[in-house]
Design goal:
The structure holds two protein chains of two kinds. Chain A is an all-alpha fold. Chain A has nine helices and no strands. In chain A, α6 crosses α9. The longest helix of chain A has 23 residues. In chain B, 40% of the residues lie in helices and 21% in strands. Classes of the chains: A mainly alpha, B alpha+beta.
Chain lengths: 197, 265
Amino acid sequence: MQEGRVSPWAGPGTREAHRDELSTLLGRVARGDQEAFEAVCRLVAGPVFGTVRRVVRDGAQSEEVAQEVLLEVWQCAPRFDASRGSAMAWITTIAHRRAVDRVRAEQRSAERELRAAAHAVAYDDVVETAEANLEAERVRRCLTSLTELQRESVTLAYYGGYTYRQVAALLGIAAGTVSTRMRDGLIRLRDCLGVTR
Amino acid sequence: MKPGRPEPPTLAGAYALDALTGADQARFESHLARCPQCAAEVSGLREATARLAAAAAEPAPARLTEQALAAAAHTRQLPPLTPSAPRRWRAGRLAAAESVGRAGSIRGLVFRQVWTPRLALAVAAAAMIIAGFVGQAARGAQHQLRQDQQHSHTIAAVLTARDATMIRAPVRTGGTATVVMSGRERALVFAAAGLRSLPSSKCYELWLMGPGGDKPAAMLPEPQHDMTGPVLASGLKAGDHLGLTIEPAGGSPHPTSAVILLLTL
């Protein structure tokens, strides 16, 4: 078996093709096609593992969570509805949710420290991987079009796995302001990336 | 509205980022189920978060896929959703499909049905309401307690009904009403928080307002620790609205003052 691919969205123009491919494959997975499931895993293992690791941090735990995500994709494929969003968004949503659930479950048992350093990490990590990943480069460019508060709110929540109330505490601003910045930031990101939905 | 508690529509971004928890999340999901535009917005924002995920991609260990394939080989898949699923639940379907991640247990293979978020809400509300109710009942006289127990059975039946729907709305004169209704049980459970206190000469009265006229449904009890209810209103008919008015103590056969809450059921 090969190493997981870094990104299913290797460059401009291929994104839509991959999107359709993934959606079609999921349709086959929904009918119990294990070969299609293997292909789906190859396409999404990179984003799934990367997203989970970004939030969970610990490598072994991230693998465990990522594996749960892939198995959930298998189990829930019959319920994927392409009219509701892309296959990739469906899968990465599962991945991110499981990752934050894992982190928050741990927080409950041993309150995780809210280190100020966390903010820098969340954003800078994306920049570091940019060379290896064109998608990351596009996202990085679009993230710079956000205001600082929007960008911090979005990245702390997504890559840091923090709740908006925790983000508010980290940034020292009102929770209501953070929720607005998250929404505005994501809208701007969506428009900048040319998301078609 | 309490300060520091943003209005649901502004929470779409936080929700798409999985940055809502507990009551914030429950509140937004109940809003989402009734707001198709919000569901569409969340779906668009999810596409943006998917790109954040893609940007974070890194090479995954090969054993990840191998193990997932091995596990899939002996794991049963969920049945698809069918069009016969009650229509009302379909509005909440996006949230439901998304919540599978939380509700499902890979090892136990226990997955909730499509109505999970609302059921979860109803159950959470039930736990809250019943806890308050039991406390209240315990303070009552013995015969009252028996009556209350009967009541609480019926209330529990509504709260745990498969088709339980939760509505939360502000009361014009202050406070927030929470209603869990079940068409199947033809009943609803009403509870409220922070209702303005009334002089002893007045009381709150609930009405089922339908095409056939206004029917008294229940009188609200005195609040306990700022919580009113729960009260049960049964005999719902299609097209009924739920109304709340302030009436002279003892109640009225027909509403005699302005409606301070009107919900379409």
